[in-house]
Amino acid sequence: MEYHLPIRFRLHNEGNPQELHGYCVYIHPVTKELRIQKKDSSFEYIQFDEVIEITVED
Fold first, then answer.
1. What are phi and psi of 34, to 5 degrees?
2. Can you give the pLDDT at residue 31?
3. Buried/exposed code over 19-32 (b: 16+ C-beta within 10 A; e: otherwise)
4. What is the pTM of this model?
5. Low-confidence residues of the chain, pLDDT below 50?
6. Is the dihedral of CA 58, 7, 40, 17 positive or negative?
7. Best exposed site among 5, 11, 12, 58 by fewest CB in 10 Å?
8. Cβ neighbours, 10 Å, residue 40
9. d(CA 25, CA 46)
10. How far is the CA of 7 from the CAs of 22, 27, 30, in angstroms?
């Protein structure tokens, strides 16, 4: 988050893996969710327990 690197998130979505590409801009420790800014500048919120894998993209 500090270096604003592009990240690929692999998520568990009701039994179907899903990918999300973007930047982590905020981590909310109380609600346990990540705020992700997608490449089209919109935001998506994901829960910690939805995350399967996180990879920094080049």
1. -110, 140
2. 96
3. ebebebeeeeeeee
4. 0.84
5. none
6. positive
7. 58
8. 6
9. 12
10. 5, 14, 22
